[in-house]
Amino acid sequence: MMKTATQNPFPKPTALEKVLLRELVRCAKSCYDRGWSWGTAGNFSLRGQNGIIWQSPTGLNKGALDPTLFIPVELATMQLVTPEKLRPSQEMPVHIGIFRAVPEAMAVVHTHSPNLVALSRSGKPIEFQGDEMQKHLGSKDHLEKCVIPVVKNPTPQEMPALADGIAPFIDRKVQMVVLATHGVYAWGKTPMEALSYIEAAEFLCQTRR
């Protein structure tokens, strides 16, 4: 019988999770270096065992993130598993909502990629057609329309509701969702896979005709 987070109150990352957390930190550094997560912007998370999510802390520079600083959070309740000096990001509900809605998602990468943010200002879905890079986002070919869902950017008071409210906006074909005027959340089986979707989408936005 699998333990729940409550039954395992002092979780530690497994050997595999430690590897993936180091990869997640490399993703964060890459996003910082590209200007996608400057200041304290952006947040990152990993699905762990026994109902745990490892969430990056708030208020830290993402160019200097450390894998030992990720905070264990209970997927079912969004509660911290252990008392922590650091706090998880206020945007944690979006990560939780993605992990709840997409069982195969193992990592979530959130950045403020500038071209994606710019195209999200209308609040309408971001659409592409006729571009080769679409195939990396799930299109069968460049002729098929590729649609990235865009969700209204919530206030801090509204953010917790996205733990359940993000699910209707998730398109299982396109592994990302954008908060309008805010940033993009992408998921994958590994951190680098999730980051690759943001790279492809940002390229499509940058070269949009």
* Distance between the first and last residues' Cα: 54 Å
Percent of residues in helices comes to 25-40%
Strand order of the largest sheet: 3-2-1-4-9-8-7
Mean pLDDT: 91
User: Can you tell me the residue ranges where pLDDT is under 50 for at least 5 consecutive residues?
Assistant: 1-5
Total count of strands: 9
Basic shape: globular
The class by helix and strand makeup works out as alpha+beta
The largest β sheet comes out as: 7 strands, mixed
The run of helices and strands is HEEEHEHEEEHEEH
Strand content: 15-25%
Number of H/I helices: 5
Q: Give Rg in angstroms.
A: 16 Å
List keywords for this structure.
disordered N terminus; single chain; 9 strands; 209 residues; alpha+beta
Describe the structure.
The protein has 209 residues and is α+β, with helices and mostly antiparallel strands. The protein contains five helices and nine strands. Strand 1 and strand 2 (52-55) form a beta hairpin. The N and C termini lie far apart (54 Å). Residues 1-5 have low confidence and may be disordered.
